[in-house]
Amino acid sequence: MPIKNRLADLHPEITGWRRHLHANPELMYDVHETAGFVVERLKEFGIDDITTGVGKTGVVATIKGKSDSKGRVIGLRADMDALPITEITGLDYASTVPGKMHACGHDGHTAMLLGAAKYLAETRNFDGTVVLIFQPAEEGGAGGKAMCDDGLMDRWGIQEVYGMHNAPGIPVGTFAIRPGPLMASSDDFEIVVTGKGGHAASPHDAIDTTLVASQIVVSLHSIVSRNIDPLKSVVLTVGTFKTDSDASNIIAHTVRMTGTVRTLDSEYRAIAEDRVRRVATDIASAYGATAVVNWAPGYPVTINSDAETQHAIEAARAVAGNVDEDTPPIMPSEDFSYMLEERPGAYMFLGNGDTAQCHHPAYNFDDEAIPVGCSWFAEIVERRMPAA
Ligand code: NI
Q1: For ligand 1, a single-atom ion, which residues have Cβ within 5 Å?
Q2: What separation in Å is there between the alpha carbon of 322 and the centre of ligand 1?
Q3: 25 FRET partner, CA 20 to 30 A, in 96, 125, 214, 262?
Q4: What residues bind Mn(2+), as annotated (predicted)?
Q5: Taking the complete model, does pTM exceed 0.85, yes or no?
Q6: CA 169 from centroid of its chain's CA atoms
Q7: What is the mean pLDDT of residues 373-387?
């Protein structure tokens, strides 16, 4: 079965919603108008079980099937937030808010989940309950974690959860996914090294913090090459390095550096943290300096569970027929990972065609992908919870 006929009929209406959202982007948790728009549409569809303020500004709504003989509950998730980017597309529905833009296609994700909701509320051709999850703050604010911390999975009894992201560079109408790790974890660190400042001509009276910190940088780069299985994927980058002095004749007293660790293997997050801490503090100690390491855990690895990945693939095949079932993992991170830590599920890439990359000021979601994405959401529900 290809695109669902009803969703093809709804294509212009859903496109209208998408363009409205595109013109009115909101950031992080400040998605009040977007959440309000979602709630208005859901009410129009006759959906009355709607909860707002989940994870600060998330929206959760349920649709009951024609029957509920087995108590099955499936969650479908879309993200609602935009990015602090100034749009340069020149579209007639371009952002009306200076410095804010839907440059990651979350306008498309929200519109597609609304489209699937309208179809599912009309047809109810399934046995069980669908939980619609509209989350804030995917772009660095861990809105998915906030919703989980608010009891999302237990309060609504979600058993499996599915989400998707548009993918520039993949043709519209094509899906891509893989079982296991799909997107990387992202942890940040800060190291503040303190030696003893002094005169550049009298190093014996100082502890040269710049030299100590430089040794730390060099040794940090031994972690990936010497402590990680060469067949695994870990990236460590020191992104900033600043001394507290701008003068050539001063030995700095402190140096602050920051960096990031990305990996597709969760076990290496802990190993990398432990090694960064030891390398920094022990090297500083060897020189008579001190190092304070602050570790800021970010999004976990996005890991698709095996069975649900197969369900996602079967639904995608039914809709589009064109599915890359073993797409290479990518190193950006995604906070749907928090939902996948709590429940089995799968995250799917949906082709967005030959557009600018996500987070680029010329990016735009391709509206031709709408019926494909909506049909995939609906197909999963109807396949996983077939009408009794
Ligand atoms: Ni995104």
Answers
A1: 104
A2: 22
A3: 262
A4: 104, 106, 139, 165, 359
A5: yes
A6: 18
A7: 97
Cα of 384 from ligand 1 centre, angstroms = 26
**185-296 shares the fold of 5-182+301-384:** no
121-152 pLDDT per residue, tens: 999 999 999 999 999 999 999 999 999 999 99
- Listed in sequence order, the residues at least 6 apart from 33 whose beta carbon sits closer than 8 Å to its beta carbon are 24, 26
165 is in an annotated binding site: yes
Task: Output DSSP code: residue 330.
Answer: B
Pairing mode of beta strands 58-64, 129-135: antiparallel
Q: Where are the beta strands (DSSP E) in the chain?
A: 50-54, 58-64, 73-79, 129-135, 160-167, 175-176, 180-183, 185-194, 198-199, 234-243, 250-251, 254-263, 290-296, 302-304, 323-324, 345-351
* β-bridge partners, 268: none
CATH topology of domain 5-182+301-384: Aminopeptidase (3.40.630)
What percent of the chain stands above pLDDT 90? 97
Q: How confident is the model at residue 1 (pLDDT cuts 50, 70, 90)?
A: very low
Q: Tens digits of per-residue pLDDT, 186-224?
A: 999 999 999 999 999 999 999 999 999 999 999 999 999
Distance 159 CA to ligand 1 centre (A): 24
Q: Is 253 annotated as a binding residue?
A: no
Residue 106 assigned to a binding site: yes
pLDDT in tens, 221-253: 999 999 999 999 899 999 999 999 999 999 999
